[in-house]
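Dear colleague,

Following up on Tuesday's group meeting, I ran the structure prediction for the two-component complex that the binding team flagged. I've pasted the input sequences exactly as they went in, so you can double-check that nothing got truncated or mislabelled along the way. The structure tokens for the whole assembly follow below. Feel free to forward this to whoever is handling the docking comparison.

Inputs:
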Amino acid sequence: MKLEGRSLSFLTVPLKALVDRFAFGTLIVASLALLIVGRADLRLLEAINTRISDALAPALEVVLRPVSASRRLAETVGELVALRAENVRLREQNERLLEWQSVARQLALENAALRQVLSAEVEDEHPTAVTARVVADAGGPFVQTVIVNAGADQGVAKGMAAVNERGLVGRVIEVGRRSARVLLLTDFNSRVPVMVEPSRDQAILAGDNSREPGLVFLPLNPRLSVGDRVVTSGRGGVLPPGLAVGVVSRIGEHKVAVAPLVDWDRLAYLRLLEYARVLPPEQLEELQQEIYGPPLPPDHLASGPSAAAPAAGPVPAIEARR
Amino acid sequence: MTWLRQLDAQLRALVPFATALIAVLIDAAPLVGAGPSGLNSFVTLCAVYFWSLYRPDLFTPTATFVTGLVYDGLAGLPLGLSSLVFLLVRNLMVVQQRYFLARSFPVIWFCFLLLAPAVEAARWLLSCLWWGHLFAIQPALLELLATIALYPAASWLLGRIHNQTPRLIHAS
């Protein structure tokens, strides 16, 4: 028996080492294959990432609970210490904001009157929004994205603008059932069509993983100065126009830097804006065909009102949600 | 009651993998700021290093691979990047286990101090190659410093868990 036991251990130890080595080799090859396949098929990569984020979103919320509680406690203690100074600051700010409120009301009335005179189309200025909590800020030094705890079940869709009380934070790039990934303005893949407010110069705000993304594709001889506000232009139809983005912070020879208005240290909740954009005519036609079927020949239209019923009559305005 | 003991032993055998997954969640949680001002740490590397050194029998190559896969999926990194790096770390630790096991904590921390920059450099290089973009080194360096500074605390915590893990497995 003793001999049998010894001979078994002689067998199992090298066998286990062999299996271990085989598994190591196989999994190294699998990792490399995943890297190559992921590069070739970004959609597959996105789908797997979304599945993993979706599965772990509830666990992330649990991990965040004690952190949020301790942060709230620290903030409360800090607020109590600075209560008096904060009160004075808020009173001053309140007075200033009341002045701005009266100016804004006046301008809104004037704006409405002028629009009426011009019969201008007014876009929906109050898009519906989904509020979501930031549950993960993963990616390390390479990717600047956050995961929020709302997904397709809550009405989140790809391309939605993510804003907080200060302004634009980024846009939704991946949507799962109960989580979504938001690409931040500062990520090197982020490109946002913007407009510099006083001059109305159009440009693209390009992230470079630094705190201050830069303006590219500026017009010739742009009229810029430090402190100019930058807002979304709405070009390309992905993001709604007029969302506050940041201020021009530096005008260098190689880079016009924009400091985003967002306070990255307090990125707790985001509003994901549902933006209904009007499609260009060619895409509108495609969408109409998808809904109503292919256009009917003219002789068929003439044969009777019942046959042509789906295609006849004024076509309702079609908007696509991104 | 034998089956209960067996179940207990099996669950305890999953502890290294479970703690590695918790480390992934801690790395993903927005603890200090977010985005460009967020201070990132790489606690998962501490867990992979620790378990590869002390319990490679429980922290199997498959567990290492899945840990990396979950890390990449959550971080939005190319799938396979962290799996590859973690598997190489595990293999290195297994090969050098005899040298490490007899050493005191400062020596093990010193070795982590040598290994972590190599891991960070490999991640940086693979990311640059995958995206075709030259990433700044500074954020990676900051992450590296935070990870090295966090290792003693992570190691202490994992050590306490480790002390609990094998006892009942052997008892079963």
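Chain A touches chain B through 50 residues (CB under 8 Å).

Cheers,
M.
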